[in-house]
Amino acid sequence: MIGTLSVSLLALLSISLPVGVVLFLLAFGIDQFYSSFPLIRGLGNMVWSSSKSATLIAIPFFVLLGEILVRSGIASRTYSALDRWFSWLPGGLIHANVATATMFSATSGSSVATAATVATVAMPQAERLGYDQRLFSGAIAAGGTLGIMIPPSINLIVYGFLTQTSIPQLFLAGLVPGLLLALAFLVVTALICAIRPDLGGTRRVFPFIDMLKALTELLPIIMLFTLIIGSIYMGWATPTEAAAVGVAGAMLIAALTSGITWKMMEASLLGTIKITAMIMLVVIGASFLNFTLASAGLGRELQEFLGSLGLTPFWTLLVIVAIYIVLGFFIETLSLMVVTIPIIVPLVLELGYDPVWFGILMIVLIEMALITPPVGLNLYVVQGARRSGSMSDVMLGSIPFVLTMGLMVAALIAMPGIALFLPAVLQ
């Protein structure tokens, strides 16, 4: 059944059907051919039960927060400020791309939104200052992936919802790996451009007084991050309530800095509706698919397969990592999470691994999927913001950052404390 499911999934995705629709079609097919009783009769109850959780309300709030930051111009001003602080390094403005993505990730919760924001404001600069289009584009795509690691993260919320794992603990666990990954991107960029200075474009040095003045443009993002994460860990708000507080804070900052117009709010709300509807269709479709898979015995079949290999827990974990890397080439990231979590996570827990730690490990693997062809969403987002050039440029430029993520996977497996240190200290 595993082979049939994989082939069917790839075939349906290849004809450009929406991912949520594909998940429902697969569920109906499994129900028809593998289940002993008609599960479709419970579809209405399944749709309701999988979408009524208060935890999921955080998703549209975080999406709206990101939309407001982009459309009010706060993100553009943040990028300009970081340009003044990082453009003197080998690689120049490429470092500002990663730094902006890191700061924007700390408020948006979405990798695609982060990549789209940075690409929109950065790509014109690359063409004007003579940067290598491949490395510049690849850095934006890679930096955008930090949106699902650095809290608040929509994907971590979904993981916590599906596995009943503490979302505040997941947020804490994702902070250090996310920042380390951002730092690693900066180091990799500097090394490449030190070896090949022609790839790094024009290095610019700004007067120190201008750099100090630019710090004021970073205050809105820092304040929002402190407001959202601080309210969670001080016990003042749940993640859902903190998301709502974050939206209120973003609107207040937008009103004080650039003003709030009806056109801006209309575009923000419309963007939020579109993104949230897509996410919820995937979550609901995956919930029904997981229900049918469990009824058809796929979880038992996978357990028997891994058990028949006779591997130790460590080698079994490496097999699971390899499965995620391969599936990430072909399956959209949120879909990959919600389809595999109910099957894989119970196996991982049986092996004795921590669910919080595995959640962070999975997020890094999902980040890799965002910048690996043929279905890497961030690659298409960045390419869409370019005025010229082929898709292969973005793909080639992302290779150093994919390898860097691979090193982070190895580091998390070798040193779980990278993810578990903060939750243990602040528990």
TrEMBL record:
The keyword Transport applies. InterPro entries: DctM, TRAP_DctM. It holds the Pfam family DctM. The keyword Transmembrane helix applies. NCBIfam families: dctM. Belongs to the TRAP transporter large permease family. This is TRAP transporter large permease protein. It comes from Roseibium hamelinense.
